[in-house]
Amino acid sequence: MEFLSSFTGLDLSPWSWAIVLSAGAGVGxxxxxxxxxxxxxxxxxxxxxxxxxxxxxxxxxxxxGDLFAVGKFWMHTDKRRLLTLLLFxxxxxxxxxxxxxxxxxxxxxxxxxxxxxxxxxxxxxSRVLKQRREATAAxxxxxxxxxTAVFGFFAGVGTGMANASGPVMSLYxxxxxxxxxxxxxxxxxxxxxxxxxxxxxxxxxxxxxxxSLKVNLLTLPSIAAGALLGYWIVKRIPxxxxxxxxxxxxxxxxxxxxx
Length: 259
Prior knowledge:
The protein is mainly alpha-helical. The protein has helices at 2-8, 14-32, 39-48, 51-73, 79-102, 105-135, 145-162, 166-176, 180-204, 210-236, 239-258. It has one domain (2-258). It has eleven helices and no strands. Helix 3 (39-48) runs parallel beside helix 11 (239-258) and helix 6 runs parallel beside helix 8 (166-176).
């Protein structure tokens, strides 16, 4: 652990280093198999690192994970839906940036916890809506412009403030009734583009630094491993039980952030 501490300038416990070094696997799996489950990684990293540092560390991790998802599923993308969501997400990104600009570490920690809890509630709502859709008529993929505007905006807020809007997108795409592969493809492209747009904003806020980039270097192997595992999971393992475990852990982590 001495090498890790000297390399990054972070004095963390062995348990905390274990979380940091393995967090990338969660990002990789979230990007290629279970969209929305990356909220667990956001919560764990915010518990392990100073809040603002955790936000800066997460962004390059997410972009690296996005590359695996975009490269694998790009041909399934619903381009019109993607462009519409991006249009409404841009004002939300500005709102999230404003929160980050004025929040201290002590203030941001419970904010991230609150966002995580809100996203988990939305995710549970999405499960109920999905079950209702399956019990009634098949979805035609159409959604109202107002619904798209609302979800696009709040997806922008969540990703701009805390890299934590995966469940917002999951809820919207479940309501829209997208099949699994278009679901993953739209999610991947949306966050890849939004995350690239966040780079100059995070640099301006001092969230991405040499220290955060050194931490990123340590997470790259686990991100790649998680993405490859995600390719396997999305084809072979039912996601419902896996989702239940991830959501339970994310709920515990969010409560920890609020205390």
